[in-house]
Every structure is written in structure tokens, then in C-alpha cells.
Write a structure and sequence with these properties.
alpha/beta
Length: 113
């Protein structure tokens, strides 16, 4: 799964650097300036993303979010089924951050791995 390339994208309203991405997807960073961040997982790429960027396997990530929802009342990122769905969501949603296989127009590329 780690052989797949992972491109982290965000809505043009968001300025993030590569070092902040992990915190966004773990619920540690919730704002970029005054904009509420809306992370979204990509089912077709989740394992590669978690391995490369978050450094967790899916089971550990799921457990992290189970604890976080009880402790902090946060909900895990929504899961979209494909790159196209993630790109569409990120384009339409201020504060959205997602990841896809290849960079796209209309969104900002944060990092590529």
C-alpha cells in the first residue's frame, strides 16, 4: 500500500504546511487561522496515507478516533470512496483537507509523498 503516491490537498481557504497534516487528521489541529478544518479520509487510499503521513495502521487510527470522540466529543473524518469524491468535497467545503493519488485543479496541494 505504501507504494501509492499520496497527495494532500486542501480548500483554497486553508493554509497548512506538511508538518501540520498529521495533527489535522488526528484531531489535534482544528483551526487554520479562523477557518475550522474539515478533514476527509479517502477509502481507496487510506492505508497508504495512514502509513506514510500519520504513521498508524487503520486499526490504531480507528481506535484513536474512538477514544477522541469519547474524550473530546470530536468525530472522525468523514470517509469518501474515491479521489473524485474527495476532490469534489474539498472544492466545495471551506476548511476541507483530504488526500488523493494525483494533484488536481481548484484545490491547493499541501504535500506529495
Amino acid at each position: 500500500a505504501h507504494a501509492q503516491s499520496v497527495v494532500v490537498i486542501c480548500h483554497p481557504s486553508v493554509t497548512l504546511n506538511a508538518a501540520e497534516i498529521k495533527d489535522v487528521f488526528l484531531g489535534e489541529k482544528q483551526l487554520a487561522g479562523a477557518t475550522k478544518l474539515v478533514p476527509v479520509d479517502n477509502n481507496s487510499l487510506q492505508e497508504a496515507f495512514l502509513g506514510k503521513i500519520v504513521h498508524m495502521d487503520p486499526a490504531k487510527y480507528s481506535g484513536h478516533w474512538t477514544k477522541k470522540s469519547f474524550r473530546d466529543g470530536l468525530t472522525a473524518p468523514a470517509v469518501k470512496g474515491s479521489d473524485a469524491e474527495v476532490i469534489e468535497f474539498v472544492k466545495r467545503t471551506p476548511g476541507a483537507v483530504g488526500y488523493v493519488k494525483t494533484a488536481s485543479t481548484g484545490v491547493v496541494t499541501v504535500t506529495q509523498q
